[in-house]
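ok so i was messing around last nite and threw this chain in just to see what happens. nothing serious, just curious
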Amino acid sequence: IKYHSLFEGIITDVELCPYHLMYNRRAWYVLGFSDVHKSIRTFKLNRIKELKSTERYFVGGESFDLYDYLGRAWSMIREGRIYNIKLRFLPMVANNVTEVQWHSTQKVRHNSDGSATIEFRVDGLREITWWILGYGDQVQVLAPKVLRNKVLETAKNMIKLNQQI
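result:
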């Protein structure tokens, strides 16, 4: 395939051995072994600029298990480190948030003030940070401190960016 990587900013030729096709967050992805990266990678379908089938066969895809591969990622980005996340959602959104099973490790406690405390064990912080920011001033990051600092830093940058207008 010829793949436009937003991260690398270039179009790369990749020989891909596809293992799994997946729909996630309003987009299609193919997961498979990349000869360029020498590992299993995720490719967004709409970034594939050219596709050519070869007559070559590959082995290894039969044993691929998507759930084992994704592990405890919040969605689909594994970062290689597990964090114990603890969040407090204010009463305005608490019921809405707790009626959804967001992650397989989720533990919910409804508090007497109408708020809810939710705990997760998640691989990586990037994706859950994006999710937390979507709740704006209705969520507090109780743990870990590194996640709280990440959310605070992003919020400060948002304020700075929007004050410039």
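not much to say yet. DSSP finds four helices and ten strands in the chain.
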